[in-house]
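Structure ticket #2291
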Amino acid sequence: MSKIPLEIIAEALNSNDLDQETISKVMNDITHMAQVLADEEKAQREPVVKKQFIIVLSDPRGTVPDEDYVGWVVQIPEDDNPGTAIERIKRSAYEYNISKKGRKYPVKSIGEACEAVGAKFQKEQNVAIKTKLPVTILKIDNVLPKIDENE
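Resolution: structure written out below.
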């Protein structure tokens, strides 16, 4: 069934020489029914699932030790060298530390810089920290298992 705007329904009722009281009752009933349907639809929706960031580290040669690691997801311009990301975070932290708020609450580590330094200072250095809190890094061997075709 198509959805018809209430204005069109009101025009159709007005054009059929109905009295205003009847038109008003019908419009109120339609509005009430539409609200009830909208509420039911909203109640039936699945709740929004919160998502988390995970960094997947490819280690096909097995050179990274089996330990728990955490890190931050950082975005820099596509054409820039990825090695400059840490320097950009350090510069944004330095700029933050010389600001009024930074003098009051200075950051002393990369982790604190990722959490506390605002987007204003990051934008000046062309860096965007996508995760304020550290996320888990999963180590993988970058190989998909073979599927047995007999199953």
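Closing remark: DSSP finds six helices and five strands in the chain.
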